[in-house]
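pinging the channel bc i need a second pair of eyes. not urgent but kinda urgent?? the chain im working w is below, pasted from the shared doc
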Amino acid sequence: MSSVTDSVIFRNIFSTPAISSVWSDTQRTSYYLLFEASLASVQADIGIVPRQAADAILAFCHVTNIDFDELRIQTEKIGYPVLGVVKQIVQKVNSLQPGLGEWVHWGATTQDVTDTATILQLRDTLDLVSATLNAITSDLRRLCQTHKTTLMVARSNLQQAVPMTFGFKMARLLATFERHKQRLAEIKSRLLVLEFGGAAGTLATIKDGRGLECQAALAQKLNLSVPEIAWHTERDRIAEVGGFLALLTGTCSKFATDIKLMMQTEVGEVSEPFYPHRGSSSTMPQKRNPISSVYITAMGATVRQLSAALYDAMVEDHERATGPWEIEWIVLPQICTLAHAVLLHTSELITGLEVHSDAMKRNLEITRGGVVSEAVMMGLAPKLGRQFAHDLAYELCRRTVQEDLPLLTLLCADDKVRESGLSKEELEGLCDPTSYTGLSVEMVDRVLADTYPG
């Protein structure tokens, strides 16, 4: 096993069949052939190459016609696979009529073919990402609606903070994924662009001023945008998509981290979807370990590390580079396969998430009222002053721990609290977690109103 994504055992955990197909040798080579066939076709249309040559090139350009063993040998010898593909086309077409195959790859360079194929692979990748994102946001909307008023504790520095609702927690996640959908739509116009400029990007080999016409026709044929200028060594497009996938998987990892913490035995507020023996231990039968969350955080961290390499790949020399470009060949397939696996794990986790509202309620009670100390402070502040009320609440919260007494009991017995004029009923209201969720419900509704099914 050279990579977990190639492993028979691990590949469907750290990748997915759909994304593995996109970044396979077969698909990449298919896109090389699509470029060459499309180029010959449009060049025949505008009179650059003979129609007979274009037809013969098109007839050969199916991946089943490629000898992959020979292509491997040629790639190891030459250093790039494109020339090996071109040689096979030339050889086959020339066998039909001598010289006919010489019209293949007319005016193009290796990087034109490679970059355009990469863009087509990225288009397929983003289609998969978009579909999974839509599934995630759809299920999150359901969770938000179902648990809009499900009371739980918010946490700050891993300590109990104030009450909120589980729907509020999920709505924050939903809003983040909706922003990612916006980012995805925005980067597509910059990313899905043809590369076709020849040796240094100037289209010097296409004579009679037809270079831009040929470029535009090829872009249309491949359903890509026309570049404003060559971008052989301007790699912002590739780095941007890597950065986007780092952001996206970072959000998934934040969610997975929360799930791991909420699954702790002492917390028990949620569980990952149950399958027999899922997360079981080889020696501790009682355990139900987080599994999907673990994979999400591990793969998400790897995507972020690999994406940083794409920023190094931007530092390219002159018009055609000596090495940084190949960084993309190494990390981009890994970034994309891992990222789609992260999204799929996240989607499945959200779909089957088990929410234990009884545990959420129980955890609100373990501080004996400390979780609403801010509410108490703000209730006393108009009478006693905010800082005084803060210090008083602070001291009473310490006593709830030391004396194992409810905060309400200590409040009712405190002279300063009695001097404030607040009644027992008012103090009970301040100590009721259900009355101190702020605008949790309203904010959930606002997020739901601003998002739409994909």
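so The radius of gyration is 30 Å. and The longest helix spans residues 110-146. — does that match what u expected or am i reading it wrong
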